[in-house]
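Same chain as my last thread, 232 residues:
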Amino acid sequence: MPAMEEGVQTSLQSLPRGVRFHPGYLDGNAQAALLAAVRSIFAAAPLFTPRMPKSGRPFTVRMSNCGPLGWVSDENGYRYQPLHPETGRPWPPMPAELLAIWRELAGYPDPPEACLINFYGAGAKMGLHQDRDEADFAAPVVSISLGDSCLFRVGGLRRGEPTRAFRLNSGDAVTLGGQARLCFHGVDRIYPGTSRLLPEGGRINLTLRRVTRGAFARAAQAPAAEAMHDKP
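reply #2:
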């Protein structure tokens, strides 16, 4: 096991409330089945290299999506859209394996609308960021790791707040919900050669998101709106 970098905080008890870590959530057979589904997605929606807004600087990860909507980034900004940015075709449907994971881990009645799939090569990373391009923050973000391990970092609701880092291995799952839904998070580094799941090496991360306000979120807002209307 690679040595952890100096100063990395690994106590899971110190994670922000709303961050739920599920080590070994998928066993080997379940990982292989999900990987087969992901390869089918890549065949229909090939990996592309996103670019940073304004600057056009390429990300170090490549990505794809499945579900009704997909997350993309280019010079025009971050957004969800129904079509692949390069092929112009709709994203492939979300496989049953991912929908089952959402039902078990999300604790949210409305289904996910997007699954962003990031592929990390040996030198790829992801800077600290918030997932805030969605309209429904009541729904959590559910993340599944496949392949090589990574050092995952999570902070607070404001950039610059203290962060914690811990290792994610193939088959691990993480949810960011409740008070942690908008926590800053990212990937510091990949540990090459730590998994045999992907013969070519690297890490695949799948994040399930609810994008628009579902029936549950609309119902929760209705009493507050009525109370405001009834005020003198």
